[in-house]
Write the structure tokens for this entry.
Amino acid sequence: MAGTRDRPDHGPGRSPGRSCAPPEPVPAGRGRRVGEQDREQLFRWHREFAADVGEDVTIDADTWADTRFGDKHYTFWETPDGTPVSMAGMTSPVGGMVRVDPVYTPAHLRGRGYAGAVTVEVTRAALAAGAKEVALYANPANATSNALYQRIGYVPLTEWAVYDFAAVRA
């Protein structure tokens, strides 16, 4: 297109294989559905997630419903003392498929298995609720998350690309 510059944003779609198992060792703690009392934590982590992935979005109680995050169901992974350390969201089923999105662990808590544990938790919950397929998308440049998703049982499903045709300013 004349006067525009394309900027690809792409990644592999993944779907769990025959099973989805937590990475070893499984971190101490448990998954817990996010409740009303968790709203501020949820908003804060979504702002951090959006910044990490380069999204410019305002997320608070007034704007939540209008964001891509507002219509999902969330689970926190929490330590044995009840401290939330990671989150994963999932969509409602559409045509029998649920999408896991987003998965986020604050930077200072990464590398401890929390993201893998919470991803397995929401994947199993989706399948137990009747989802025929569960999918997630991963940034191909993020070797850590791609390796994690493979270890817990997700397999490549498809490659995709989204182009943002932003107007070129003279």
User: Anything to note?
Assistant: The first strand starts at residue 4 and ends at 5. Confidence is low (pLDDT under 50) at residues 1-11. The chain is about 20% helix and 30% strand.
